[in-house]
């Protein structure tokens, strides 16, 4: 018996050693510097989910469906390739991207900055029936190449905004929400049968502004008038030769014919994949050798307590900002915000840390697709706020409430008896609606929170309380509109935010900085033994994802500073 236990122990120990060896081998393979050859072109495949930052843990990055390409990956790779003598040009393979216009604009800026070095960027499209955002990106390239049989859909922006009130009425479900004020429409989909006047006004203004920028940029890039571009968009679909004749593309080529373009001084270039190039050390290219700047990513809805890389936890993000503030070697802080908002309390927890950080070192906010409501709350203390023209921001307002399922319970034959010790102990129960007095009480609580939002926004933006109220009231603005009403300072992306941070920190414009990115990448062992950092999205569809995101907040009793979830812009 003892001999058997001894053999089992030896076997398990041997298995443990083998496992460690395999893990070490895999880890070393991914840590090994990439072999990028001279006279190469960098191939970037842009399609599918496109978050601000990829999952920071090893397991999710490399094994659970592969590493998701992020905006940060592309932005940083263009910065490196611009000064890398081995990279002669870039080939962008464009497919449908699951993101909104500001992220596209960020990459478009990176393409234009890369081209300023004298190197070329080519966009290759196989088939894209609905492609306006991606075509907007393609127009920043030197040449746009379409598969000879490929469809190209440039049919404008817009979509359908669903309203569920009639369906909920049939189910016996009532939405009881109070909001400040008329533009705070995050729950209109459950309370209205269609647009209110304020909701329609806001949506029209957003769409028109984004569409105007799209038309202007395409007209400039393709050397057309804006009227010509609008006529092209009104036709909508183009296939192969039609796209070429309309001046939407420059070439119709098969895959094997791309080699005729990917040349340098008549010499065929070698391919460098982005998945490899990502691991190129910037320091080896003379980049990121100066003073340190914290680049902190704030992505997703805002919740209390701890979060992960795609859900902003008030405590988690505050801790990162505090560490950057207390680190004496950190010259400045840049916070990259991509959030529709969430808990008002959690947003204020984060605001407090930004307020303290601003007192000690330069703090610059860089806004991505969404930075509204709670997303604006955590931004408004920055020394400077930078947004893309298509960023959706503002939405200074608050809401709160519940769903009454009393009618549904009755239909299902579910009964209940009240036991409450305190007149309003069952205030947020789904078994009954609010009374008129309770709705008034809830409105008073929300107005109280809204006043704090106004006061802090006015202080951060050097405006009066009434100035902020006029542009607040829950209204969402594009980045361009927000600049006009002084909710943001500059239009641009990460490059602009870093330039401002350097200027505020007294760092010469031509001096590079070392970026310390948070959340930091977790090692293999840290992934195995640490707290999970990522969640698998079982519903990757963009609209369904937004709907599920909205449903996460149902039944919450807190005041919420959250944007409308349904803002389809393509």
Notes on the structure:
Helix content is 41%, strand content 21%. With 570 residues, the chain is an alpha/beta fold. Among the domains are: 33-155 and 236-277, 2-enoyl-CoA Hydratase, Chain A, domain 1; 288-397 and 450-536, 2-enoyl-CoA Hydratase, Chain A, domain 1 (Alpha-Beta Complex). Helix 5 links the parallel strand 3 (120-125) and strand 4 (143-146).
What's the layout of helices and strands?
Elements (H helix, E strand, L loop, with lengths): L1 H30 L8 E10 L8 H5 L8 H13 L3 E12 L2 H15 L4 E6 L6 H7 L4 E4 L4 E3 L11 H7 L2 E7 L7 H4 L5 H26 L3 H10 L1 E3 L1 H5 L5 E2 L10 E2 L2 E2 L1 E4 H4 L14 E8 L2 E2 L8 E2 H13 L3 E10 L1 E3 H17 L2 E10 L1 H4 L6 E4 L4 E3 L3 E7 L1 H7 L23 H26 L3 H7 L4 E3 H6 L5 E2 L2 H11 L9 E5 L5 H6 L12 H10 L8 E3 L8
Parallel strand pairs: 1-2, 1-11, 2-3, 3-4, 4-8, 12-15, 12-23, 13-14, 15-17, 17-18, 17-19, 18-22
Antiparallel strand pairs: 5-7, 6-20, 9-10, 16-24, 19-21
